[in-house]
Amino acid sequence: MTLETAVREALDKGEVLVPAIPVTSCPIAATLEVLGKKWTLEILRDIGMRKNERFSQLLESVQGISPRLLSRRLRELEASGLVRRIEEPATPKKVVWRFTDKGWDTLPILMSYVAFGSKYFPERVFPDGRPREMKEMYPAPIVEKFFVPLNVDEQRAAQARRGKEVAVANVQSAANW
């Protein structure tokens, strides 16, 4: 029995997931105060996964964000301890944004979003609209440490049963997802 199945069965029987120790606020809500703001996850994705560390790179890769809002989000992430601003000695001055140790701890969160989107929204993610597992997208063994694998077989089967035609409206290269 998988952990997922065990948790589902427990919840179906009326059990609830409640912390065993007292908390002053919901950890999900506390996390969303920082990570839940518009553009934040995309900024973290680009710094951590794509190595877009310069302001100009981020402005180009996070489509739709204004320079003012990008600057604000970077300062918020810095204040939260997720990224640090590094001025590299150069003429003209070169500033890069890098993950802190706390920032690197967001990688499993980002990869969970990738896994979820790849399984449940494949028509928006892939040109052929077919669900993918993470090991198909990121075959390097080291990457497996950063995500919880979601089995896509049931999604593929459901899609096949529906005979779903996938409309490919806006296909982007992998670099722009």
**Strand segment count:** 2
Q: Which structural category fits the helices and strands?
A: mainly alpha
| DSSP helix fraction | 40-55%
Main β-sheet: number of strands, strand sense, barrel status?
Answer: 2 strands, antiparallel
The parts where pLDDT drops under 50 for at least 5 residues are 165-177
Tally of separate helices = 10
Terminal Cα span: 34 Å
Q: Please give the order of strands in the largest beta sheet.
A: 1-2
Q: Name the CATH architecture of the largest domain.
A: Orthogonal Bundle
The SSE string, one letter per element, is HHHHHEEHHHHH
Domains counted in the coordinates: how many?
Answer: 2
- The CATH superfamily of the largest domain turns out to be Winged helix-like DNA-binding domain superfamily/Winged helix DNA-binding domain
CATH fold-type name of the largest domain: Arc Repressor Mutant, subunit A
Structural Rg: 19 Å
The amount of beta strand, in percent, is: 5-15%
Text of the CATH class of the largest domain: Mainly Alpha
Shape from CA axes?
globular
